[in-house]
Write a structure and sequence with these properties.
Helix content is 69%, strand content 0%. It has nine helices and no strands.
Length: 302
């Protein structure tokens, strides 16, 4: 279900009506149900992967937090008898256990992403090597369907579990709240990837209807639609025409095509981010700006 489809607009309107009709303390539950419905519409089987990622992240964050609390309690109870070297040695041993759990979680979550996204790519390379050695028989492609937004929610869980490991904040005790953080539907298609401690401030707190915030969100969405549908899609036609007919379009046309492509790419991505942030504003939820003037950035990080 694309953000630019009529089906999504109907989905969003119905969500808005129910969202501001129920008690504020139940709004996050509605968002979780809506997010999983949004995901199920894209493919019911995809739910298996996002649920598996959510559960692995929850269980490992719980285990890491338990080890951290055990360490703190042990040192507090034995601070009078432990030497400085003994405390240091104990902390190192506990940190190693936490790091083991962290590694298992990252390998599992990124393993799902790697298998689904890169298996056929690996098979293609193996087949190419086999052909070099005169082998005519090729390995069959598995053709896994790639779940919606798997790259985004995998990296988001990575940020969360690493933050818990580094003790930037405690783990989320409610697995359903963590599930909402991972599956929040506006972010699934193209981000932004959010930090848990930033997003939870508005994701789980109830929101009364705010006409001013709602109007700002609506304006942001319309601006995003304009950039995607009017600018990006029109420029894509010109770019495709130039690239598709290299004999007819040469010289200055190639330069024009490159310029149009840069603008098309910018408007397509920023338009999508505008829509996502605008949807968040409609719900009273503030999402991070992550695509501000990328062509004028002074570093890769920026």
């Amino acid at each position: 279900m694309l953000f630019t489809s009529y089906e999504f607009l109907l989905f969003l309107i119905l969500l808005m009506v129910v969202y501001y009709s129920i008690r504020k303390k139940h709004q996050w539950i509605l968002l979780l149900l809506a997010s999983y419905l949004f995901y199920a519409i894209a493919g019911k089987m995809y739910l298996i992967y996002i649920i598996a990622t959510t559960l692995s992240t929850y269980l490992v964050s719980y285990k890491i937090n338990a080890l951290q609390e055990k360490q703190a309690d042990y040192i507090r109870e034995n601070k009078e008898v432990l030497s400085r070297d003994e405390r240091k040695e104990y902390k190192a041993a506990m940190k190693k256990k936490q790091r083991t759990w962290l590694t298992l979680c990252l390998v599992f979550n990124f393993g799902i992403l790697a298998v689904l996204k890169y298996t056929d790519f690996a098979i293609a390379n193996v087949n190419s090597l086999l052909s070099l050695f005169g082998r005519s028989k090729e390995l069959p492609f598995l053709r896994f369907a790639l779940p919606l937004g798997i790259s985004f929610y995998t990296f988001q869980t990575m940020g969360y579990i690493i933050d818990v490991y580094r003790e930037k904040y405690s783990y989320e005790k409610n697995v359903f709240r963590l599930a909402l953080f991972i599956s929040f539907f506006p972010q699934l298609i193209q981000g932004p990837i959010s930090r848990f401690d930033d997003l939870k401030k508005t994701l789980f707190s109830g929101h009364p209807f705010d006409a001013k915030e709602f109007s700002f969100g609506l304006q942001r969405i319309l601006w995003g639609y304009f950039k995607k549908l009017v600018i990006a899609d029109r420029l894509l036609i010109a770019v495709t025409t130039i690239v598709g007919s290299p004999k007819e379009y040469q010289g200055v046309y190639v330069l024009v095509g490159m310029f149009f492509y840069a603008i098309e790419l910018y408007c397509d991505f920023t338009g999508g981010i505008d829509i996502v942030i605008g949807i968040g504003q409609l719900l009273g939820i503030h999402l991070e700006e992550n695509f501000i003037r990328p062509y004028f950035s002074k570093s890769i990080t920026e």
